[in-house]
Amino acid sequence: MTNKPIDFRHFYQQIALSPLSHWLETLPAQLQQWEKQPHGEYEKWQKVIDFLPTLDIEDVDLKNAVKVTGKAPLSSGEKQRIIHHLMQLKPWRKGPYHLHDIHVDCEWRSDFKWDRLLPHLAPLKDRLILDVGCGSGYHMWRMVGEGAKMVVGIDPTALFLCQFEAIRKFLNNDRRANLIPLGIEEMQPLGVFDTVFSMGVLYHRKSPLDHLTQLKNQLAKGGELVLETLVVDGDENTVLVPMDRYAKMKNVYFIPSVPALIKWLEKVGFTNVRCVDVAVTTTEEQRKTDWLDNESLSDFLDPDNSQLTIEGYQSPKRAVILANKANN
Fold it and tell me: Residue span of the signal peptide, if any (predicted)?
């Protein structure tokens, strides 16, 4: 079997007659450039997608989970073959996925986060949505389940693109969500999305205010930003700047308090800024599973004090902040 490059032409056709049509001025050339510098494992991961079978579907539930039910149970051999192929795409970070008789038990119970934030969002029905740093796309499918018109995820990681395309194949090639392998800094200011999500990205940015401005530039007037990020306790002047690593992550630059984060958002021009959820990350939400070869949260915490990271910082706490782009 000859593996085929992931084809973005369907997406180009989708957006040609949409508010995103002006993205076609730059996007095809950017993706051609991306494909010229593939990850060393990219060809292997593409083959995994090709090897996955197309199965008859009885039901798809994206409202309550990302779940596909087949018309007939998988045979033991079919199930083992599919699991073998999907395991070639480890690590599976965000999930879970329920694919016929297979449970992809990802490191993160991303449904926990979704259940916390969903009640606070402006209804997603019929909205054009951008999910920045979308990973394998779990939350994108949940957005589709809420009735979104179209969801565009961006994440430059080739593995996440292949994981997304594998899940899409099980969803009968559903085109309501699309993952584009770019970073937010590579996007022109489109200014058309009704809702923009940035979850788990801000603390990886060397310039957080620039990131917030980039997010605002993608929103339509009056549109809603959903920002989820690590935070620390403190007042509006409190910002943690880890010297080396934070919870064993080397690319963490700034972790603000909630009041500081609200000030940042107001400083770059957002309105109606409000914190709707703060939650300490638990080992029930982030943990080691068979779908992950790497360490997970329990390895990142002080073994003698779970309220501290292994470096001695406050253990991970995450906040959800909503804000709007001004109408004028």
Answer: none
Q: What is the C-alpha to C-alpha distance for residues 191 and 193, in angstroms, rounded to an integer?
A: 6
Alpha helices in 228-271 (DSSP H): 258-267
Residue 12 half-sphere exposure toward CB, CA atoms < 13 A:
12
Residue 1 is predicted with a pLDDT of 40
Enumerate the known binding-site residues. 94, 108, 113, 133, 155-157, 184-185, 199, 203, 318
Q: Cα separation of 167 and 170, whole Å?
A: 5
First to last CA, the chain: 54
Residue 70's pLDDT is what? 94
Whether 312 and 302 have beta carbons less than 8 Å apart is answered as yes
Annotated binding site for carboxy-S-adenosyl-L-methionine: 94, 108, 113, 133, 155-157, 184-185, 199, 203, 318
Tens-place pLDDT, residues 88-140 = 999 999 999 999 999 999 999 999 999 999 999 999 999 999 999 999 999 99
> How far apart, in whole angstroms, are the C-alpha atoms of residue 132 and residue 146?
18
Q: Are 274 and 321 in contact (CB under 8 A)?
A: yes
Cα distance between residue 100 and residue 217, in whole Å: 40
The pair of three-digit structure tokens given for residue 53, joined into one six-digit string: 């079978």
Map out the domains of the chain as residue ranges: 37-325
Residue 68: burial class (beta carbons within 10 Å; 0-12, 13-18, 19+): buried
3 state DSSP class of 294:
coil
- What is the greatest pairwise CA distance in the chain? 60
Strands 193-199 and 301-302: unpaired
The span from the CA of 5 to the CA of 136, in Å, is 18
What homologous superfamily is domain 37-325 in, according to CATH? Vaccinia Virus protein VP39 (3.40.50.150)
Cα 314 from Cα 240, distance rounded (Å):
10
